[in-house]
Amino acid sequence: MATGIKKNLAKKGFCSQTRAEFKGECVGLFDWMHGVLGRTAKNEEKALPRESLRGRREFSIEGLERDLELAKKRELDVSGKPQSILSDIQYQLGELKLLAKKIKARTTDPQATHAAIRESMRKNFVERTLLLDPPEMPRQLDYRALAEYHARLLKFLEKATKNVSDNRYLFHFFSEDMKAFAYVVKVLCAQADELESVLREKAGAASAYAELEGMLKAIGERQAAQAKLEELLREETAALQELENAAEKAEDSPLETQLAELGLKEAQLVARRSELRAKTADAFGPLKRLLRKYAHDAPKKDKVLAQKYADDATKALFESGDAGECKTLFSRLHEFTAKEGGDVKLAVSHFPTETALAGMLGEHAHLAGQIDEVREKKRSLQAMNAERDARREEAKRLVESVERLKARIREERAERELKLAGIEKKAGVLLQWGDERRPIAKSESD
Length: 446
Prior knowledge:
Blueprint: H1 2-12, H2 19-38, H3 61-75, H4 82-105, H5 115-131, H6 143-166, H7 170-173, H8 175-251, H9 255-284, H10 288-297, H11 300-320, H12 323-339, H13 344-349, H14 354-431
Helix pairs in contact: 2-6, 2-8, 3-8, 4-5, 4-8, 6-8, 8-14, 9-11, 9-14, 10-11, 11-12, 12-14
């Protein structure tokens, strides 16, 4: 294989070159690679020979995607010439690796001039060359795979050329090996040019198809966004309808009137209770002085009861709700009056009767029950009223939300229509539709 490379080099004139000539050749190689790597494949879109679809009158997005895929396979077919170029490239990549291993096997005489520099550059060059990641053959030969392969090849050649440039003094130490290496790199660069030429022929069509695919993707995204908005609109509308139904039922029950009536009834009951408490206070009025005196001198076991009635007899009676407790207190007052030498008969005459006490307690308990019942009804109605107010607020929010969603859906549809018009125009040029075609068929979600 080495002999074959040497023959090729001889044919190209490498072996007969002087060092200065070869140096110039290498500089030319670097300049050429710089030019290759700086080029782009931007081209004007070319008219492409296609089968006419003039007979088609309408289409769907899905149908257009299928047509587009078929047209891409036909128009971007690169299954011919590139196959042989790729085979040659893979062969030359193998040659580079073999040359690197050959240089790796070279030995350096420690006594030779610049031996340290020579050995350092040799190791650096070989290590970097063997670490290069050459492009793998595409598994399927289509435009995109070929374009990716070409990009990886250029990147590989850029690194390989930089490696040669960084270790350029190796041309002095390993002249024949490095000439062969440079030659293979130049061959690979020429083959990269051939690939670029193949790609350039298809670049305009590839760009047009990519643009149309991007537009179709954008349409799909718009359609998905519109579908989500429409689903949310349905949910919000259903919730609004449910609130409206609940509101209609609530209107049949005039809460404000009922609350007003209950408020009036509560006020009347509270007034009656206040009146009862006032009458009870009047009944205990003549005993106020005697109760305070007894509370001061009462035995320890009776002091709490005596003090409670001395402070507020009405409150003590209604909080205990026990006429027997009051009867016990009166008995202690009777004993205390007799012990103090007071007028027992007069004192006893001021004691409310047991019947009167029972009546006051009974009426007070009845009024308290009525007041609690009225207040419970009020709380229930107030909760219903608050719930109704909350429904009104929620209904207001839902109405605003529904209007916003409808506006957004209109915007999405308008944007989608605009993109559909762009697709129709682009597809008409790309796929050569006739003027008699109909507009793009819309999806059912519209």
